[in-house]
Specification:
The complex is a heterodimer of chains A (259) and B (244). Chain A has 259 residues and is mainly α. Chain A has twelve helices and no strands. Chain B folds into two domains: 64 residues; 162 residues, no CATH class. Helix content of chain B is 84%, strand content 0%. The chains are: A mainly alpha (259), B mainly alpha (244).
């Protein structure tokens, strides 16, 4: 019964998200363009699938993943766990003591990104727009590797307490250099992937991780250090997707030269 | 309908494969690193089942509704619409999809708390609510503006990287003058504005526009709207923090 109630709540919330979009599109389509939608039944069934799909997806995550993932993030960053890993030695707050946190950030970043619906949508569209040259799986793995690296480095930054802008600016410079050498057709897609990695699945877990670290590492301020992990998860995929594009171009060139 | 059913079954299998890594990671850390028993496994199994079902339905809905809708709008605007309509549509779409975004609401509340602690605003409920609402409006306007710029870019065929890279330069300069408490929130605001429904719709719109205009490539010119929509909130939120 409780599950049905939360499904209903989820449906209402998703519907509320969609309502403004429907109103805007309805106004422009119906009033200004005066165009009828062909096959309205198909459109309505499709929209219901999207609404129901997102609600079920979120409810499922709420049941299966979020509470467990958040508990794990808290436990892994807790002083008790860090001390239990050290045995006799006393914890000093050295960054290496948080070894498992970096592994966890990377692993959870990689695996949740593969399940991110918005990224899947972009990958399907990129596959179609490139005439099949960009593979759906390859693009998603490249983005997931980016999120994994980004979250591991972002966790490290919170542990050592370095200022966020230094890291982000360095990554921008790397992206700038990559942009000069990468195949032109891949650049906009690579930039777009930065924005889609962090929506439904990744953000709640990442937020728990960031706040857990900022609370537990001695000398960290939740206000300053707890944020910024999402920013890492957004800029790193640009780097890895550009790298993926570059490497694919080299491999293709190698194949052609070989023949 | 039979076709849709096949697509659905196919996507159930794919969703299962996509979710496998999460299960492996959670199992590994729970049992081997944290050495804790797995909590109520029937709840988890039910949850996973719903996730697979939801993801599969979403994929079916993408093909049936969101992608065709975005493409059709792009086609109609390119054929019949005036430029001013297209641009106001882009702005309204960006504004409307962002202003009610739950993660944006959460982040602007947190920002208001921080602003109150740092004495930028009074520490009462009214001042905090006002501040959070202003921040939400600022981000929504910024996404609307980003889509307008993005659509103009597609029509004119400007290279995306110059716009994005100069935008980042502005972010860097503004960060230099901003309070550290504000920077984290501003950077995160860029990531939370693009929801699961907006992304497919906006991408289909961009690719559709590029495809219906002679001389534009869907890949080179069609993508990039999402990138702009994630960049502009950072600039607007940093600027908002400085003005306050």
């Amino acid at each position: 019964m409780a599950i049905l109630t939360s499904l209903l709540e989820g449906l209402v919330a998703t519907f509320r998200d969609v309502l403004p979009i429907v109103l805007v599109i309805g106004f422009f389509q119906g009033v200004l363009l005066r165009k009828r939608v062909q096959n309205p039944l198909r459109l309505v069934v499709g929209l219901v699938c999207v609404l129901l799909g997102i609600s079920l997806f979120l409810l499922g995550l709420e049941l299966a993943l979020f509470p467990l993932g958040e508990t794990m993030a808290r436990q892994l960053t807790s002083a008790q766990f860090i001390q239990s890993q050290l045995g006799e030695q006393l914890a000093t707050g050295h960054w290496q003591e948080y070894f498992w946190v970096y592994i966890f950030s990377a692993a959870i970043g990689f695996s949740t990104t593969l399940a991110e619906p918005a990224l899947l949508a972009i990958a399907i569209k990129a596959n179609a727009a490139s005439g099949g040259a960009i593979r759906v799986g390859g693009l998603r793995v490249a983005v997931a590797v980016g999120v994994a690296l980004g979250l591991a480095l972002g966790s490290y930054r919170i542990v050592v307490g370095d200022p966020l802008p230094y890291y982000i600016i360095t990554i921008y410079v790397i992206v700038l250099v990559q942009t000069m050498f990468a195949p032109k057709s891949m650049i906009p897609l690579a930039y777009d992937t930065g924005g889609v990695t962090t929506s439904t699945v990744t953000v709640p877990l990442v937020a728990a991780l960031g706040l857990g670290l900022a609370q537990n590492v001695p000398g960290r301020n939740i206000m300053i250090d707890g944020f910024g992990l999402i920013a890492f998860a957004s800029v790193f995929p640009m780097m890895t997707v550009l790298a993926y594009a570059q490497v694919s171009a080299w491999i293709d060139k190698g194949k052609k030269d070989g023949v | 309908m039979v076709n849709a059913l096949i697509v659905f079954l196919h996507s159930v299998l794919k969703s299962l494969r996509d979710l496998l890594p999460i299960a492996v990671v959670v199992l590994f850390f729970q049992t081997l690193v944290l050495r804790q028993p797995l909590p109520d496994s029937s709840t988890i199994a039910l949850g996973m089942f719903l996730v697979v079902l939801g993801l599969s339905l979403f994929i079916v809905g993408l093909d049936m509704a969101l992608f065709p809708l975005g493409e059709k709008l792009a086609y109609d605007f390119a054929r019949r619409g005036r430029l001013s309509w297209l641009l106001s549509f882009a702005f309204c779409l960006g504004f409307a999809t962002t202003v009610a975004e739950p993660s944006l609401i959460a982040i602007s509340r947190q920002a208001a708390e921080i602003a109150a602690i740092e004495n930028f605003i009074d520490s009462n409920v009214v001042a905090k609510t006002n501040y959070a609402l202003q921040l939400r409006l600022v981000v929504a306007v910024s996404v609307g503006c980003a889509l307008v710029i993005g659509v103009i870019r597609i029509l004119r065929g400007w290279p995306l990287h110059w716009i994005i890279l100069s935008g980042y330069l502005v972010v860097v300069i503004l960060s230099y003058f901003s309070a550290p408490e504000h920077i984290g929130i501003a950077y995160d605001a860029g990531g939370v504005t693009t929801s699961t429904i907006t992304v497919p719709l906006v991408t289909a719109l961009g690719v559709g526009l590029a495809a219906s205009i002679h001389g534009r490539s869907p890949l080179v010119d069609g993508f990039g709207l999402i990138a702009l929509a994630s960049l502009s909130p950072m600039i607007f939120v940093l600027a908002f923090g400085m003005i306050n």
